[in-house]
Write a structure and sequence with these properties.
Helix content of chain A: 10-25%
CATH topology of the largest domain in chain B: Alpha-Beta Plaits
Radius of gyration of chain B: 17 Å
Shape of chain A: globular
Number of helices of chain B: 3
Oligomer: heterodimer
Radius of gyration of chain A: 23 Å
Order of helices and strands of chain B: EHEEHEEEEHE
Largest sheet of chain A: 9 strands, antiparallel
Number of strands of chain A: 26
CATH class of the largest domain in chain B: Alpha Beta
Number of strands of chain B: 8
């Protein structure tokens, strides 16, 4: 019977300041030195980290009421529209939202200098934000127009809620075409001019817990410099994919939806980004602790870059038009070395995710836990795993007929 | 003396063996940093030109006599470390390793003296930590 620990036992040690916490990089050397059995006894928590562009991010804000009150129909922060099709002064500001005045790709490639992600960073930095809203006016909410200046301190609640973060693995993007491509993976030079990759490899949260044995709904995490929680699986969570012998997916797989109080966060860990020719987004810092409940979990956290593979995908035709072009797999150790071999050609690699920042997040989280400031949490429910057989769906191609677009029984019911 | 200059050629001028003459007849050290010259098209060349003052000036006069436009390299790339998130995308586009990623720490550093102001890094930086500044340098 191998040695096991419980969440409660680990938290007791954290409270006493006696927990042994190491990062997902440090654990590799410890295991090599001491072996799995010994290391599993000694180590209580392994911390992970990632810091990269995560478009599916945003913030719910309640602005409080104006006098007279307003039921916002449209609202803008620094000219960037937030969605307000919810209660009167609630809104959701998405990281990829652009100002209406943005020229987009009309002059190709567009610059996308400012968007929702930049507004979020400015808010967290405590900067003054121009708030504008319009409304149609009701008896209870008569105000029709609002223009003012706010800061994060002025709003009631601001919490980050990101529908899809921390992708478990991601494509390595290349360009087989003959012109440069401007993508969410950055600039891809023609004729295999470079290979762009994301994720922090051996430090990445879901690559250290490939079967979601400890990361689940309710897991307490480092989010944007503050404390957040895993709220659900992320959108496009697709665990049923090709995996290596170590359980690590070899394609994009699981994702996380996360939540946390924006007012605790830090602009160093939420950074607005501009991808030329693509759009605006945000780099989000996420760190997740993995409790070493048993030796098996330690095995997963000791994963090395050389044991992680991702698919090489053409973004000229392969990705945008869903053409199957097999370019093989890339290995993270090679990707991080600066060059990979694709069909006999040495190709320069372009990272999108910041490895030094991921390392820093794992080390901050380690300090928090070691200092007794951050306890680990048992998930209230686990995420769907590979055995859930989740299908990866696409939008069906159907033609609405005779102008009947909506469900008529519902539309005509009243 | 030593200067970084940009030469602009017309299509006809690009047929001339200019570098050969600068070296052979004016005893100048030519270090080509960037060149974009296509036959039958206009082109440009960024170079570091080193030599005795008299030779240097005679070499520049020779270029001018051919009608090659010759300007000091006056743009400077600035890297703002406080805006940089250390993703490292820029280093993969930099032809001279002025923006360099240490593979141990995976951190980026910038060495201005290696920069040839090609501008490739400007577009690929998602935080816009890299910008172009137009400095007036020592005139040729």
């Amino acid at each position: 019977m191998s040695y096991t620990k419980t969440y409660e036992e680990i938290n007791e040690k954290i409270k006493k300041g006696q927990a042994v916490v190491v990062t997902a990089e440090e654990v590799i050397d410890i295991v090599e030195e001491k072996g799995y059995a010994q290391a599993a006894r000694e180590i209580d928590v392994v911390t992970t980290g990632t810091f990269g562009p995560m478009c599916s991010s945003g913030v719910f804000i309640n602005f409080g009421h104006s006098n007279p009150r307003i039921k916002m129909k449209k609202v803008w922060l620094n000219g960037v529209e937030a969605y307000t099709g919810i209660a009167a002064v609630d809104a959701y500001l998405g990281a990829a939202q652009l100002p209406e005045s943005d020229p987009e790709n009309k002059v190709y490639p567009g610059r996308f200098s400012y968007g929702g992600g930049h507004v979020i960073q400015d808010l967290v930095a405590g900067k003054e934000i121009r708030l504008e809203a319009i409304a149609y006016g009701t008896d209870c909410y008569p105000n029709r127009k609002l223009e003012t200046i706010i800061t994060l301190d002025d709003v009631n609640e601001a919490f980050m809620f990101n529908p899809r973060n921390a992708y478990q693995n991601y494509n390595c993007a290349v360009n087989l075409g003959d012109r440069p491509l401007y993508t969410y993976m950055g600039i891809l030079r023609p004729r295999l001019g470079n290979a762009a990759y994301s994720t922090s490899g051996q430090l990445s949260p879901l690559l250290n817990d490939p079967h979601y044995k400890t990361i689940g709904i309710g897991t307490r995490i480092f989010l944007g410099g503050g404390i957040g929680y895993v709220s659900w699986n992320g959108t496009q969570h697709h665990p049923n994919v090709l995996r290596g012998e170590n359980g690590v997916p070899q394609t994009p797989a699981g994702t996380l939806s996360v939540i946390g109080d924006l007012k605790q966060m830090d602009p160093n860990w939420l950074v607005g980004l501009s991808y030329i020719g693509y759009g605006a987004t945000i780099a989000v810092g996420i760190g997740i602790p993995i409790p070493i409940l048993d030796e098996e979990i330690l095995h997963y956290t000791a994963v090395k870059d050389e044991d992680i593979y991702c698919p090489i995908v053409d973004y000229f035709e392969g990705y945008p038009y869903k053409k199957n072009i097999d370019l093989g797999l890339a290995n993270f150790k090679e990707l991080k070395s600066g060059r990979i071999n694709i069909n006999g050609k040495m190709v320069v690699t372009t990272p999108q995710s910041s490895y030094p920042r991921a390392r820093k997040i794992a080390s901050i989280l380690k300090e928090w836990i070691a200092a007794g400031k951050f306890e680990i949490s048992r998930p209230v429910q686990m995420l769907p795993g590979a055995d859930a057989n989740i299908d990866f769906k696409s939008i069906p191609d159907r033609r609405p007929v005779n102008g009947i677009v909506f469900n008529s029984s519902r539309m005509g019911g009243k | 003396m030593k200067n970084r200059i940009v030469l602009y050629f017309s299509a006809a001028q690009s047929e001339q063996p200019i570098i050969y003459r600068l070296v052979k007849e004016y005893d100048l050290v030519v270090n080509i940093l960037k060149a974009n010259i296509n036959p039958q098209k206009e082109g440009l060349m960024v170079m570091e030109l080193t030599g005795e003052k008299d030779n240097y000036e005679a070499g520049i006069s020779y270029l001018s006599s051919l009608g090659v436009s010759c300007e000091p390299l006056s743009e400077t790339v600035m890297w703002d470390e406080t805006l940089c998130i250390q993703c490292g995308a820029c280093a993969s586009f930099c032809p001279t390793e002025a923006l360099f990623m240490d593979r141990e720490s995976m951190e980026i550093s910038f060495e201005n003296s290696k920069c040839v102001v090609c501008g490739m890094c400007l577009d690929c930086c998602p935080t816009r930590a890299i910008t172009l500044h137009f400095d007036v340098r020592e005139a040729v």
